[in-house]
Structure formats: C-alpha cells, structure tokens
Automatic annotation (TrEMBL):
Domain of life assignment: Archaea
Gene, per the UniProt record: fbp
Alphabetized Pfam families for the sequence: FBPase (PF00316), FBPase_C (PF18913)
Protein name per UniProt: Fructose-1,6-bisphosphatase class 1
Keywords from the UniProt entry: Carbohydrate metabolism, Cytoplasm, Hydrolase, Magnesium, Metal-binding
Species this protein is from: Halolamina salina
Cofactor(s), by name: Mg(2+)
Family statement drawn from the similarity comment of this UniProt entry: Belongs to the FBPase class 1 family.
Gene3D superfamilies: 3.40.190.80, Fructose-1,6-Bisphosphatase, subunit A, domain 1
Self-association and partners: Homotetramer.
Length: 288
C-alpha cells in the first residue's frame, strides 16, 4: 500500500503544473452546470477534475476515485480499498471562485484504506497543493507533515516535520457574521481581539496561513446551513489529518473531524482547525 501512496502523491505533484497551466485560459468561464453540492462549476474545476481523474484513476492500487465534482464514487480497479489498495477523494480545485480575482487556490487529496465515503480515521495520508506565487504541496503521512515545492512536476521537500507555531498569530472565519450562531459570534469577538485576520476565500490558502503562523481557521455552522459550507470527505477530513499531524487540532464543534462518520459522500460539516488551545476554547464556547 505504501507504494501506491507514493504513486498517488507523485502523481498529484506531476499533474499540479498542468492544473495551474490550465487556469489562465479558463478565467471567468463557467461550465454552465452545478456540482453535487448545488454550486456552479467553473471550466477550471472541470479541467482539474478530469486531469486528476485520468492520472490517479490509472494507478494500479487506486481502487476508488471520488471528487467534489462527481456525483458518485468511481470504481477504478479490480481491487478493493483496505486489501492493499486505496481510495482517493479529491477537491480538484479548492477556492475556484478566486480565479476571477486572481487569488490563491488549491487541490485537496485524501488517501483512505476504506471504501468511500470513509471517516477521516481511515486516511493513510492527506495532502494539499497550494497554487500561490509558487506551487507547494503539504503532505501528512505516518504522523508527520512535509512541505515541498513542486518544480517541473516533482516535489522537492523544503520543510520536514512541519508543526504549528506555539504562539498563534492569525485567524480566518468564513460565512457572514449575522449568519453565525450566537456562541460562535461571541467566540469570534474574543479571537479577533487576540489574533490578526487572514481570510482569502480558499480553504487551502487560509489553512496554510494557520500552518505557517499558528492560529485558527473556521467555516462554522451557519443559521441557514447548520453543517456549514465545506465538505467532510473532500475538505474537512483531509485538512484535519494534516493539521492534527502538525500538532494542531480539528473539530466539527464537538469532536475531531477525523471521528465524524460520513453518511453521504458530499455531506457538509462545520470546520474548525488550528492550535489546540483555540479549538478547545471553541468547543467549550459552543457547548455553553
Ligand atoms: O466564499 P466564502 O463563503 O468565503 O467561502 C469560501 C470557502 O469556500 C470554498 O471556496 C469552497 O471550496 P470549493 O471552491 O472547492 O467549492 C473554500 O475553499 C473556502 O474556504
Ligand atoms: Mg473546496
Ligand atoms: Mg473545489
């Protein structure tokens, strides 16, 4: 299985420059369809999904492929996750609405040893690619986190044993303030007097701020959307795997995001990730 995990991670690094290279020609182009979450899809989302599906689905040992942009899990091989093979769940382009304003975007990948949908506890590795001024890939595997620069389709490690700084500096919370539940709004009031706001509208970019400087990122439950906006399988669980492996914590408001049992491939979940002290305070605030 570890060879397959290597193959998946190397393939993500190989495909990332093509995803990035395809962005300029797809700026401002809607695909004219909605994804399974009911959101409009850009041509860049479709292109990234196709590139990753073709490359990852072709790997021997990848038995299932699921994407934020596809209704159902695709059975890609003869084997089954857990019997030496893996399942890959991907958000091909995270923060794709940032393409119009030319801001950061990413790709999020979870590699599980169980059939999808699967809880975060079944992730054997997780990674995100950040398409910023440079393209980087951050991987959680065997309890440690490594950040690499992707150059010519290959990942070159630039930081090993990445961990959240002990002294948190930044926060970023999604959703409109009047939509936040009262307990979250009160918690946010405290946090904003302690940390600096960093919110760019792409989870990967905003989480990478937290990984770099310490702090907390959240896309909380909203009055109109009690499970928030982000998807457990494609966003919440893999990001939680990375933040927890880097010494931080994650929560859906009550428990680690890795413990949430999925009932639906595209289900949403409130996401809170960052330094343990801030996540614990958040859980205490919501429990009051
Ligand atoms: O526009 P909002 O409400 O701030 O939402 C931003 C959030 O939505 C997302 O863009 C959703 O991801 P997708 O772009 O993959 O659908 C996250 O990256 C980000 O954290
Ligand atoms: Mg996303
Ligand atoms: Mg996406």
């Amino acid at each position: 299985m570890s060879d397959t995990v290597d193959d998946v991670l190397e393939t993500v690094a190989a495909v990332a420059p093509d995803v990035r290279g395809g962005l300029p020609g797809r700026r401002l182009t809607e695909a004219g369809v909605e994804n399974p979450s009911g959101e409009s899809v850009t041509a860049a989302d479709v292109h990234a999904d196709e590139l990753f599906f073709e490359a990852l689905g072709a790997i021997d040992g990848v038995a299932e492929f699921a994407s934020e942009e596809r209704e159902a899990v695709v059975d890609t091989g003869d084997g089954a996750p857990g019997e030496g093979d893996v399942a890959v769940a991907i958000d091909p382009l995270d923060g794709s609405s940032n393409l119009a304003s030319n801001n950061a975007m990413g790709t999020i990948v979870g590699i599980a040893d169980e059939s999808l949908p699967a809880a975060g506890e079944s992730l054997v590795a997780a990674a995100y690619v950040l398409y910023g001024p440079i393209t980087t890939m951050t991987v959680a595997r065997e309890g440690t986190v490594t950040t690499s620069v992707i150059d010519g389709g290959e990942a070159r490690a630039v930081e090993e044993d990445v961990s959240l700084p002990d002294d948190p500096v930044v926060y970023g919370f999604g959703g409109r303030v009047p939509e936040w539940p009262d307990a979250f709004r009160e918690y946010a009031r405290e946090v904003e007097s302690e940390l600096k706001l960093r919110y760019g509208g792409a989870m990967v970019g905003d989480v990478n701020q937290v990984l770099s400087y310490g702090g907390i990122f959240a896309y909380p439950a909203l009055e109109s959307a009690p499970n928030g906006k982000l998807r457990l399988q494609f966003e919440g669980a893999p990001i939680a795997k990375i933040i927890e492996a880097a010494g931080g914590a994650s929560s859906d408001g009550e428990q680690s995001l890795l413990s949430v049992e999925p009932t639906d491939l595209h289900q949403r979940v409130p996401v809170h990730v960052g330094n343990e002290a801030y996540v614990e305070r958040l859980e205490a605030a919501l429990a009051d």
